[in-house]
Amino acid sequence: MLKQILSKLPKKVTKSESPDSSRGDSGNTTSFGNVFQCTNVGSTISSKLNVVKRVSSVVFPSSMNVGVEAVDPCLSFKDVSNTTQKQSLFISKLNLCCKVYDMSDLDKNCTEQDFKRQTLVDLVDFVSSGSVKFTEPAVMALCKMCATNLFRVFPPKFRTSTTGGETEDEEPMFDPSWYHLQIVYELLLQFINYNSLDLKVAKMHMDHAFVLRLLDLFESEDPRERDFLKTIMHRIYGKFMVHRPFIRKSVSNIIYRFVFETERHNGITELLEIFGSVISGFALPLKEEHKMFLCKALIPLHKPKSVGIYHQQLTYCVVQFIDKDQRLASPVIKGLLKYWPLTNSQKELMFISELEEVLEMTSMAEFQKIMVPLFRRISCCLNSSHHQVAERAHLLWNNEHILNLITQNRQVILPLVFSALVNNTKSHWNQAVLNLTQNIRKMLSQMDEELVLACQRKFDEEDSGSSAAAERRRVTWERLEAAAKSDQPVVSGDVIVPVGSSATCSVAC
């Protein structure tokens, strides 16, 4: 039964039984030359079809083909008048620029590189003209193109990270692919700044993963790239409110890794410049998250040896926090004292300068919380053998606000620094430091002469007591030396046994 049913179905036509072959065989008039010609035409047509198929699948991926008309990316925007076709041409050019070339060899693929650069320039001009409409396929294509060109793994750093001043003298390294990257960054910046940009559509593709990869690019050793990234990240923070907490958290993680693990990062300065303006825009009262960022991220940034590279930006951020809430002054000063350098005079100079800026914004209540440990440290700086550190510490008294704080708390502060001033007068080697010390002592005498005299009496008593203790130690050592000389060792076999009351006692015991 089954064989009868199958026999009634139409048979499949084989290649030998196809109409074309049957006609060719029946006519029997086709020459060898004609066959060769037909074969060439067929291969040419098939190759063109393959090209069309490749362009449609690469230039226009399947996720972007919906509602997009295929347009030759080699065309100019001036050659296309229809708005829809311009949008399609815009997407096709973006996808054409997704091919990345090795820019270390300028002679390799030179023509393709120049064509890609000209295409990028055309895209920037088209966006700046304001005639583009960023639909979802356009946003998707632009984000894909930027990700393909920008997101990359940097080679390992071979340069050592030393002290701040030595690191500043190192020559920057420039990326050979900046020839193209600059235009890609310019296009991304214009996209973010576009007035009619639909943020709901843009944030779908410029998501947290995209932002995180942008932050990773701050590791670039090319200062031009970091400067562009700084502007772009600042615009993203200002325009995409949904990304703000994520950006703050990600930057905190970068700082944690830098401070506590690697002490290597090229973009700390630029990140702090971004947050300098971000902190100034914080609403009052400050959130606990923002205070944690100050205490856990910014203050520990004083620890690395390379703090000199970014200290100016770090100081600005810290001062912005205190300007928002003066109660943060005492935690900041405690942090400075915690990370105060003991053997690096250049860092010490930076810390004293920052301390002066912080004290200028410190209220009386906050100053009284930290004035004892603070002026113990300043007293050590007044006695520093490095003349620049000693001079900078003396010049704190020239600040009117700091002098006012000292004057109102002189009963506590003067005893802490008086001994350092007297020791400077007696033994400091630098004449400029001696002159500054004399000026401060004169100023203190005019401020409260009775207190200065009391401090002088106390210093004399301590000095005489220390002299008496030193004399007792000297006499004791002389007696020990005399006793050691009078006791001659006795040799007994292979063991040398000292003779004396103490030795005999120890042996007896």
TrEMBL record:
The keyword Chaperone does not apply. Its main location: cytoplasm. Keywords: Cytoplasm. One of its GO terms (cellular component) is cytoplasm. Residues 1-28 are annotated as: Disordered. One of its GO terms (molecular function) is protein phosphatase regulator activity. One of its GO terms (biological process) is signal transduction. Residues 14-23 have a biased composition (Basic and acidic residues). InterPro entries: ARM-like, ARM-type_fold, PP2A_B56. It is found in: Cytoplasm. It holds the Pfam family B56. Belongs to the phosphatase 2A regulatory subunit B56 family. The B regulatory subunit might modulate substrate selectivity and catalytic activity, and also might direct the localization of the catalytic enzyme to a particular subcellular compartment. This is Serine/threonine protein phosphatase 2A regulatory subunit.
